[in-house]
Amino acid sequence: GKQPAAAHVVLLASPGVGHVLPMAELARRVVAQGEVTATLVTYANFSSAGHGFPSALMATLPPSVSTAVLPEVPLDDLPANARIETRILTVVDRALPNLRDLLISLLASSSPPGGGGVAAFVPDLFGAWALQVAAELGVPGYVFRTTNLMALLTLLHVPELDRTTTCEFRDLPEPIRLPGCVSLRGADLPDPLQDRTSPAYRFVVESAKRHLLADGFIVNTFDAMEHETIAAFETLSGKGVYPPAYAVGPFSRTCSSGGEKAEHGCLRWLDEQPDGSVLYVCFGSGGTLSMEQMAELAAGLEASGQKFLWVVRFPSDKDRSASFFGSGHGHIDDPLSYLPEGFVERTRGVGLAVAEWAPQVEVLSHRAVGGFVSHCGWNSTLEGVAAGVPMLAWPLYAEQRVNAVMLAERVGLALRPRGNDDDGVVTREEVAALVTELMVGEKGAAEREKARELREAAAEAWALDGTSRKAFEAVAGEWKKTAAAVRSRGAS
Ligand code: UDP
Matching InterPro entries, A to Z (predicted)? Predict the structure, then answer.
């Protein structure tokens, strides 16, 4: 038979492309450590959303990564306007019995004398809800944070804020000052935390508490991006306040594997554009603009005269993450038809609007791309960094406002439209001014310089002896130790 690997780890990706993609990348890197095998667990819920993911993606995983899908759980009792966080955490919660069964069967099949048990259970930020199940089975848990460390510190602070204040966070009189972080307005905390009476609020506070069941956090960030925060976190975990954090990033895809067509037409269009001349506009897998905002963005892009490549989604006046659950819901037409009258014709040659989806990694690393209007999803941010492209930070939901503050005020990688504060509309004038500044202005040039520095630093972080590589080896080393201990207990 096959020689069992030293350590088997179970990775749990919560629903959504932005969660499955980085977890798949983690799986790849985990097994590349040698002597480690992995099972990547996903949810059937929402898996048909997201443009062919994750089944196409799953097919590209290395053979030492097994996969398992937790069966679909019903959600029809949730109100139609339930928040994205409520939906995801409800799926995770309702599938806990299935997850427990799966873990039990994996434990049985990898138990000594041949195997080393399950050395670690590694959920992502929403999957942290399930840490209890692993703890009950004696499996160590490590949360893979697909966001940055500042967002993690902020989340971990939320239960205390919840306990010690009574107003809505957006009304907090003082900014939130956390060790090693730039200060944050209460209003910059994620949306579900802005309404204490909502189910999503309770879910997030409880999820933050459950994070403390972890034996460690694997964080998709790196020293040059968050040096002060990493140092501050180390001090806190040294005092036993929090489990240790391993800064192992950036984990971003080097190419858009998966459902996309290998050669998207927009890449051929980019081939014809001058170096660094094109602004790429994309709001992640879920980002959605209102009708009014879509019109203002269009007019601003047009007025700027800058070249652009815009991934256009169906607008929604209700939900800034509407695309997350699969685009085209209830639409039989084309998202481009929601653009202002004549926009496509007037900008022909200058701009290209593509419907729904672009192969983002290839786009960002194309020599013609010189700027990125982004919702500041962390994967998108890291992909921009890996390509050395500066950003215009346009957060829409989740922890994106935290990211935007950090990128603009700490890192110096992004300009921020003020109109976006407090969920306002960014006017065409502001769009035009900022786009011009980013592409050809002085501030844009400074940010481009910073982006290039970070690109170098990101590469160094994963070079031999790089900080992130070492942190990753340290956490994998913990898993191998656990597996060895289980095996020697089984042998005696
Ligand atoms: N993505 C893409 N093409 C698109 C939109 C998104 O390839 O048109 C990919 C993008 O490269 C990133 C992921 O989808 O890897 C989105 O993750 P992110 O964390 O940026 O945002 P989320 O969608 O989770 O809000």
Answer: UDP_glucos_trans, UDP_glycos_trans_CS
